[in-house]
Amino acid sequence: MEHKKTAKRLRCIVKLGGAAITCKNKLETIDEENLKEVSSQIRQAFVSDSTSANVLGMDWSKRPGQSEAPSFVNDFGDQPVADSESYIVVHGAGSFGHFQASKSGVHKGGLSRPLVKAGFVATRISVTSLNLEIVRSLAREGIPSIGMSPFSCGWSTCQRNMTEADISMVIKAIDAGFIPVLHGDAVLDTLQECTILSGDVIIRHLAAELKPEFVVFLTDVLGVFDRPPVEPDAVLIREIAVREDGSWSVVKPKLEDTSKPVEFTVAAHDTTGGMVTKITEAAMIAKLGIDVYITKAGTDHSVKALSGFLKGGIPDDWLGTAIRYMS
Amino acid sequence: MEHKKTAKRLRCIVKLGGAAITCKNKLETIDEENLKEVSSQIRQAFVSDSTSANVLGMDWSKRPGQSEAPSFVNDFGDQPVADSESYIVVHGAGSFGHFQASKSGVHKGGLSRPLVKAGFVATRISVTSLNLEIVRSLAREGIPSIGMSPFSCGWSTCQRNMTEADISMVIKAIDAGFIPVLHGDAVLDTLQECTILSGDVIIRHLAAELKPEFVVFLTDVLGVFDRPPVEPDAVLIREIAVREDGSWSVVKPKLEDTSKPVEFTVAAHDTTGGMVTKITEAAMIAKLGIDVYITKAGTDHSVKALSGFLKGGIPDDWLGTAIRYMS
Predict the structure, then answer these.
(1) How far is A193 from chain B (nearest CA, A)?
(2) Sheet holding B156-158, edge to edge
(3) Distance CA A199, CA A18 (A)
């Protein structure tokens, strides 16, 4: 179909993990410092003249305690818009949405039950308020970010599998020079009436349709570990190879006891799937020949991952998990 | 096309005028009291058992100054969802969005100019933040409201005329029992790259496609006057008749000096079109056989308009402007 391609090749899809940008144990609380750092790193990675100190903010909203719009609004000249690579941001929910969704069981469906219906509305309010704050944070860094809710885009599922997902509007937004910011959302399901569509499933779908050069998952730990990362002997998995049939194996480091099954885990607050789901989703992306990097948000390692530097090879001092196709 | 109809006939489209729900001279400030009253009136008009004092709120977000979700979340029983008429809410921008849009000239297009591009992003941030607050206000009244942005829905214009506006998602939301809440938005334009799509144009399109029984415009004055309503002799136009060719004339009250052209006006803060635009839009709706009522938000008159009571005839004590087709 002709509209399935963007005019420029998509450089990257960035996942902002809910655990990386929200305070996971505090209801509906953004980790402002992390979010600001992540937004700044995203700008530096994708905007060509981002060495310029003159970032022109695109969030002109009233700031708390002020009654006027910010004064920099008068600083826009008539220079052309800075050249930017095209990319998409998808974020999880963290401490937004999960309470509402799990309290009501939105993922299990059944909109005729008042609790589910109210939970659907409450979940959307919570996740769209997080989306708005992320869009604002990116816009303050001069990134032309545009919030797009999967529900409003008309995306829906059938028995929790993504079926309808017209991405033509995402493509139009990219071609117009904007950065779409999508999120995990409550959506309609043709079989069970409603469910939760996770950010990771959205990314897999977008990756399959738009074939970005690479995908970066930014989370609150360094990557995938062989056991819970709080345990003293936890080993960071550095590289996973994915074969043509979708199966995958750890290639680096060489794990000593290969007879014992590895308990993959991260400390992420994520009711839509644990680490095995994450690796499985990542493996499905890697199978398409798209490198996937999982690393900690706001570090030198995330800077390297976002910049595309890792495409040439993974240096030994890079800490994170690379999931790549190996023919 | 089969998807152009909702399962139940749409009862009403409600326009919340920006001037009625925001403080028009204070940047990005909601008129909380008015918005709460309007939300409550909307619930009473459309939910069948709304005499019940037991309204179960659907906004489960953390309240300011609290760290927990509201406790009523535990009060949802397993009784079926209250029967509600189907309707759509569309709101204007008021003191949200207008500053950003007019400062940058988004309506004139030209996304390659940094000011326009930034203004587009800033406008969407501002109007979507208002949309979120309106959705929350309606949800607190137990209305299953769902925010849907025209941009995300994929709606666009060509030379500022609405061209692409797939309403299938609006229909699906209604059929699932939700109340879509749409808003004036910055959208892409195939000829001039971008523009502003006003709430009134959205309503005309939805009315033409979905044929509601009636349309209510809630504003900050009683209706359409023959001159600025602050003038002492301003006369409220009570009824306008629309003929088949779209032309319209005042039928009540009989204006004394018919030789002098009437200066229609309201004190609305509205850069997307003044009162003549509003009457022209309303006349195009009325031409389809759909009654249009313009009245002041939060009054007994708006209660009557929302309830459908005026369909039987306009009582003398109703203050507002009715715009109706007269064959």
Answers:
(1) 8
(2) B161-164, B156-158, B185-189, B193-197
(3) 10
Backbone φ and ψ of A131, nearest 5°: -55, -45
Tell me the percentage of chain B whose pLDDT exceeds 90: 64
Kind of pairing between the strands at A12-16 and A87-91: parallel
Query: Which positions in chain A touch B95 (Cβ < 8 Å)?
Result: none
Residue B308 near residue B213 (C-beta atoms within 8 A): yes
Task: For B250-283, write each residue's pLDDT tens digit.
Answer: 899 886 655 555 555 444 433 334 566 678 889 9
From B174, which residue of chain A is nearest by alpha-carbon distance? A188
Task: Please tell me the predicted confidence (pLDDT) of residue B262.
Answer: 54
Taking an 8 Å cut-off on Cβ atoms, the answer to whether A188 and B176 are in contact is yes
In a mutational test of the A interface, the residue from B56, B59, B125, B157 whose CB has the highest number of chain A CBs within 10 Å is B125
ipTM score: 0.92
Kind and range of the H or E element at A45? helix A32-46
- Is A21:A302 a contact under the CB 8 Å cutoff? no
**Residue B58: which of A122, A135, A148 has the nearest Cβ?**
A122
N-term to C-term CA, chain A: 28
Q: What are the E-state strand segments in A172-213?
A: 179-183, 185-189, 193-197
Do residue B132 and residue A135 have CB atoms under 8 angstroms apart?
A: no
Taking the C-alpha atoms of residue A104 and residue A88, their distance in angstroms, rounded to an integer, is 30
Q: Are A11 and A46 in contact (CB under 8 A)?
A: yes
CB neighbourhood size of B276 (10 A): 12
**Residue A176 is labelled as binding a ligand:** no
Residue of A nearest to B123 (CA): A60
The answer to whether A105 is a known ligand-binding residue is no
CA B307/CA B323 separation, integer angstroms: 17
Dump pLDDT digits (tens) for A197-209: 999 899 999 999 9
- For residue A126, give every residue at least 6 positions away whose Cβ sits within 8 Å of its Cβ, in sequence order, or none: A28, A93, A96, A97, A99, A100, B60, B61
Full set of structural domains in chain B with CATH: 2-46+82-325 (3.40.1160.10)
Does A94 show up as a binding residue in the annotation?
Answer: yes
Mean pLDDT within A184-194: 96
Q: Find, in chain B, the residue whose alpha carbon is nearest to that of A186.
A: B146
Q: Answer yes or no: is A110 a known binding residue.
A: no
- CA-based nearest residue to B213, from B80, B88, B35, B59: B88
| Residue of A311, A146, A104, A112 lying closest to A215 (CA atoms) | A311
